[in-house]
Amino acid sequence: MKRQSNIELLRIFAIIGVVFLHYYNSSIGGASVLVEYNSVNFFVLNFFESTCICAVNIFVLICGYFLSRTYSRNLIKPIQLAIQVVAINVGYYLLCAIRVRDFDIKELLYSFVPSNWFLILYIVLFVFSPYINIVMETLSIKKFKQLIVLSLVVFSVVPTFFDLFAEIFNRNFQISPIGIQGNQEGYTIVNFILMYLIGGFLAKCDLGRIKAKTIVMLLVFNIVVIFAFLYIDKKVALEYCNPFVISEAVLFFLLSSKMQVKTNRFINAMAKGTFSVFLLHFYFYDFINIGYFVHQNAAILVAHVIISSCIIYLSCWVLGYIYEKVTTPAYKCISRKYPALVWNLREENRTKPR
Length: 354
Fold this sequence. Notes:
single chain, mainly alpha, 17 helices
């Protein structure tokens, strides 16, 4: 399917949002524990976090928007993504082992495991998505809307309420409709399928009827609500299945759909490397001196966040581009040799004898 540059621009924004979220994350970039509590910079970073927290949901929503229109799947794609994760893990381990001169066979073997929560959930969604499409195709817009509303209530509103309730009482009541461990902050296939359904629903709707001014007003309100929610319960506020986080992703998507962007090869090429950025950006935070900049004035901090995020993006993109150029010929060869890896569920249904 032809890439739409306005949506690709949203994809770039989303991955830069992920880079910032990990910039602020206490165990990765560490800005949240380094910044002075209740300082101006603290509020600035919280505002950025409130704006970017929907990034993962945006990716899955975009996936639903495009994949819901096709029943063709190339199984080389998830294999290619899994191998890329392994290649990065092994390469990083070997570099560290050489640097510290400490080689551990168990650690090396562990690095061959494609351990990445997003990758695993994406592969599951990718494989099952044609069957989800069959269900969506049979629904009228009215019935589809009912499914979306019911799914939002059961898998977003109710779990978020129960998680907030559990946080208040510091107890796990085991009453979540998602699982015994609650909604797991939205890191579940349930939330991925929900966002996929929303993306599929938007693909069927006439988005031109919604005014850009209305979208902007709702988006600003949504960000303010998430920002305020941070001071009620930060953990629940930032859950991917939080209805405000989900609606923020939808509003960003609607806003991007209003952008009049002609097909731009540069934007499309930059967006194509977002998965490489997602995998590689973790390794750059030690080199951008976050501890120094969180104590500078707010303007300098904002400039550092934006500039460092863009530099990290470009650096990861270049590495991903090189990797792609090296590996693409092999995957093309595999696709030609094993055409059964490319399948179309709709064609199978049409050719099946009755």
